[in-house]
């Protein structure tokens, strides 16, 4: 075979594979595939991990669509109904926050005997009412969603560890951020946001932790630490005090953003939707965080 023939054959083969690749990377095709799978987090993580091109497509489009499908109400609220708007920290960070309990290590205000790795959650509840418990009185005009703590067993002689997370709407214009700046609170040197990688403030160090926060979490007073990053993501840890059978929440009416795997008839739909329920949850299929950031 001559050199010219080899060149023509190589061009023909590459052209054929390029046609398949163009179909594979077609945004409409990917959207239809993900819709047919009801935006399965596991599948999307795997897809985003295949190559740089798919990772970029997921970052620009697919994670946003997943949030809109799996958590429409909280996503609508955070984006003010403008789906094309840029989410603080990016859409992958929001998706990760909804479905991933971040890892935690000791800090200057909270000591752990050993670090705890992050993991995908099986269920989570986010609440506006919980969020208000984490805001100082002068900052009550801010909108903050906070999850129930994810419980981690530490040891027989210790309280359980609670790991919680949350997100502000419009953090750059929030009163909480204004208070941090007015107090000249310094950003932490070592701590980073587990969802977007940005630098964070320690709300404990800044003196902006309301007493209601410990009560809301079911924690001992002062036995908690949480951080807020420059993009408005919150993550924290606490020691969970044992509750008696007659103890519970503070009796406030909650406006909760529920996410579950039901289609409204009691049958699993394979996806996650959100709404207002007495016992709202987020249900996911975990895979790992290498497809997010």
From TrEMBL:
Transmembrane feature ranges: none
Polar residues composition bias: residue spans: 1-14
Domain of life: Eukaryota
Residue ranges with Gly residues bias: 263-273
InterPro entries membership: EID1-like, F-box-like_dom_sf
Family matches, as SUPFAM superfamilies: F-box domain (SSF81383)
Region (Disordered), start-end ranges: 1-20, 250-282
Name of the featured protein: EID1-like F-box protein 3
């Amino acid at each position: 075979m001559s050199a010219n023939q080899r060149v023509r054959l190589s061009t023909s083969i590459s052209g054929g594979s390029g046609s398949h690749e163009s179909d594979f990377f077609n945004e409409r095709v990917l959207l239809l595939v993900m819709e047919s799978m009801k935006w399965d987090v596991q599948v999307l993580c795997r897809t985003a991990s295949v190559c740089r091109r798919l990772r970029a497509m997921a970052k620009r489009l697919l994670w946003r669509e997943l949030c809109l499908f799996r958590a429409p109400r909280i996503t609508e609220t955070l984006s003010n109904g403008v789906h094309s708007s840029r989410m603080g920290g990016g859409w992958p960070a929001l998706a990760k926050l909804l479905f991933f309990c971040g890892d935690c290590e000791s800090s200057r205000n909270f000591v752990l005997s050993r670090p705890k790795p992050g993991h995908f959650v099986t269920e989570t509840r986010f609440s506006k009412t919980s969020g208000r418990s984490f805001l100082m009185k002068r900052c009550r005009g801010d909108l903050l969603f906070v999850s129930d703590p994810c419980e981690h067993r530490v040891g027989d002689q210790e309280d359980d560890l609670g790991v919680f997370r949350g997100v502000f709407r419009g953090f750059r214009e929030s009163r909480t951020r204004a208070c941090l700046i007015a107090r000249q609170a310094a950003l932490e040197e070592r701590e980073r946001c587990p969802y977007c990688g940005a630098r964070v403030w320690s709300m404990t160090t800044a003196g902006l932790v309301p007493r209601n926060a410990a009560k809301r979490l079911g924690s001992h007073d002062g036995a908690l630490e949480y951080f807020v990053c420059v993009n408005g993501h919150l993550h924290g840890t606490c020691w969970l005090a044992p509750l008696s059978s007659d103890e519970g929440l503070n009796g406030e009416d909650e406006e909760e953003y529920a996410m579950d795997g039901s289609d409204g008839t009691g049958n699993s739909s394979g996806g996650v939707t959100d709404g207002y329920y007495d016992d709202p949850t987020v249900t996911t299929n975990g895979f790992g965080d290498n497809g997010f950031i």
